[in-house]
Write a structure and sequence with these properties.
Blueprint lengths: L2 E4 L14 E11 L2 E8 L5 E5 L3 E3 L2 H15 L1
Antiparallel strand pairs: 1-2, 1-5, 2-3, 3-4
Length: 75
C-alpha cells in the first residue's frame, strides 16, 4: 500500500492538512489544474477529492512506521 501526504509547498493553503491518505481513484481527464483524484484518509476513512499533483508518496520505511503506529494505537 502506498501512502501519500500533501506536499509541504501547499502548507499555506486553507485546505492543507497533515493527514495520511491512500489513493482510491484517479480521473484520467486532465483539467486546467491537473488530474483530479479521490483519496481516503488512513485514520478516519473519509474520502476527499484533491488534485493528484499536490500529493507526494511517503517512503516505504516511513509508511511501515506509520502503519505500525496506527496498529499499536488500535490495541
Amino acid at each position: 500500500m502506498i501512502l501519500y501526504r500533501m506536499k509541504q509547498s501547499c502548507s499555506k493553503q486553507p485546505w492543507f492538512d497533515k493527514e495520511i491518505y491512500t489513493l482510491v481513484d484517479i480521473d484520467e481527464h486532465i483539467t486546467p489544474f491537473g488530474k483530479d483524484a479521490t483519496w481516503r484518509n488512513l485514520l478516519t476513512c473519509e474520502k476527499r477529492n484533491l488534485f493528484f499533483d499536490i500529493m507526494e508518496p511517503i517512503s516505504d520505511l516511513e509508511s511501515i512506521a506509520i502503519i505500525r503506529e496506527i496498529r499499536l494505537e488500535q490495541i
